[in-house]
Design brief:
With about 425 residues, the protein is mainly beta. The protein is about 10% helix and about 35% strand. The chain has a seven-stranded antiparallel sheet with strand order 17-18-19-20-21-22-23. It is globular, with a radius of gyration of 21 Å.
Length: about 425
């Protein structure tokens, strides 16, 4: 059951937690590896409770807020050999595709000095010189959060780094775009890090940039572990918790900021569900972590998505969902009851017969922005960039074997587009 109340103060504690799992402390290499495994398991399971720990020591790096500096194409090109990947690639905006890297300093201690965000012209390819395709570039005075396993080093073994799989999600991870393609948001590397599960000690900046110019529209500093973050067309929503899950003593909170006043006080929504995506004007929540479908035995299992307004009001629940796309689309089984029955009868199975049964289930695309649905049976849907920003390409095979395609835009009325299909031929 999801709890959601809108208020401006610290939420009330969650109900009595379920039986706890063993905790692991940072110490030897073996114990740190065990702790990372537990964290990975926690973010891939439905809601459950765990015991809490006493506050531990935190590491602090100097922070004077967030600032940006424009970069020329030549400056970007000269720094490329120092870039460190953060898995933010080709975010589709109304003005081009945006990527982000971290710039390594001259020293070899592995620390990161800054983030570099670039926007390339629509239709640009990796084969073209970036000095010719670059539209704008900006340097952040803080590095961007790295969604990678950083190994077994004490200085990198923090609470937030254990969520690297969670923050790789394209609908709610490190880099997201608003459905109208106008805004970009990035999660930065925590400047006050929490070790040994002292979740409340962490401090992290989340920034919003203009997709047109790369200018800083605003930043917010949040405390606690970040489980997810999304953009609607007019709001920034960040989910934080005091553990690796939002339920029980994780005390999950979704803070909603107006894009027109990011410096203002956010409204807060207490929720034991995961923030997994957004439409133009709503938030999408699930009782399961967005990483719960990473293997064949579970990834096709249906789950329920709750669509909620940014003010905390419930709009509707959608059953039988098996995928969330950036921009406000869901893929669901056309017959949720039949999907639930199949899920129960094939639990724990991953053989060819089971996979074939799931593939034979009729599916559809639900457009939460327009309210329309599109049959997907026997076809596939793919997140793509379209001239207005986030889009969805739907492909079918006709009876004669010829391909049939259309694309959808998150920024219009949701009607199928068949014009300019050649924009997807090289992708």
């Amino acid at each position: 059951m999801m709890r959601h109340t809108t208020h401006a103060t610290k939420p009330t504690p969650m109900p009595t937690p379920m039986p706890s799992m063993p905790r692991h402390r940072t110490g030897s290499a073996a114990s740190r590896a065990a702790r990372a495994l537990v964290a990975a398991l926690l973010v891939s399971l439905p809601l459950s409770g765990c015991g809490s720990s006493a506050p531990k020591t935190v590491a602090t790096t100097p922070s004077a807020g967030v600032s940006v500096t424009p970069l020329s194409p030549d400056q970007v090109e000269s720094e490329r050999k120092h870039f460190s990947s953060v898995y933010v690639r080709d975010l589709p905006t109304r003005y081009g595709t945006v990527s982000a890297e971290n710039s390594l300093p001259e020293s070899d201690d592995g620390s990161l000095s800054s983030g570099v965000v670039t926007s390339d012209k629509p239709g640009s390819t990796d084969d073209e010189p970036k000095t010719k395709t670059l539209q704008w570039a900006t340097r952040l005075n803080h590095p961007i959060f790295r969604t990678s396993d950083l190994g077994d080093r004490d200085r990198d073994s923090t609470t937030q780094t254990q969520t690297y799989d969670l923050l790789k999600q394209e609908s709610s991870g490190v880099g997201v775009v608003s459905p109208d393609g106008q805004h970009i948001s990035l999660i930065l590397q925590p400047h006050r890090t929490a070790h040994d599960d002292d979740f409340s000690a962490q401090r992290t900046y989340v920034v919003v940039l203009s997709a047109e110019t790369g200018t800083l529209e605003g930043s917010v500093e949040v405390s606690g572990l970040i489980l997810g973050r999304v953009l609607t067309n007019d709001s920034l929503a960040i989910q934080t918790a005091q553990n690796y899950y939002p339920g029980a003593e994780g005390r999950g909170v979704i803070s909603v900021y107006s894009l027109s006043n990011l410096a203002g006080k956010p409204s807060t929504i207490s929720s034991d569900h995961w923030l997994i995506g957004a439409s133009r004007d709503s938030l999408l929540l699930s009782p399961y972590s967005p990483t719960a479908g990473n293997d064949w035995s579970t990834r096709l299992r249906p789950f329920t998505v709750t669509q909620m307004g940014t003010d905390g009001t419930m709009r509707r629940t959608i059953t039988g969902v098996n995928r969330v796309y950036p921009g406000g689309w869901l893929q669901r089984f056309s017959d949720p009851s039949a999907a639930a029955t199949l899920a129960a009868s094939t639990a724990g199975k991953d053989d060819d017969q089971t996979q074939a049964a799931w593939k034979a289930m009729p599916t559809q695309i639900v457009d939460l922005n327009s309210g329309s649905t599109h049959d997907l049976t026997g076809g596939r849907a793919e997140s793509v960039g379209v001239p207005t920003g986030p889009g969805l390409l739907i492909s079918h095979e006709a009876a004669d074997g010829s391909p049939q395609q259309f694309w959808l835009s998150a920024a219009d009325d949701g009607h199928p587009h068949t014009e300019n299909l050649e924009q997807f031929t090289s992708k």
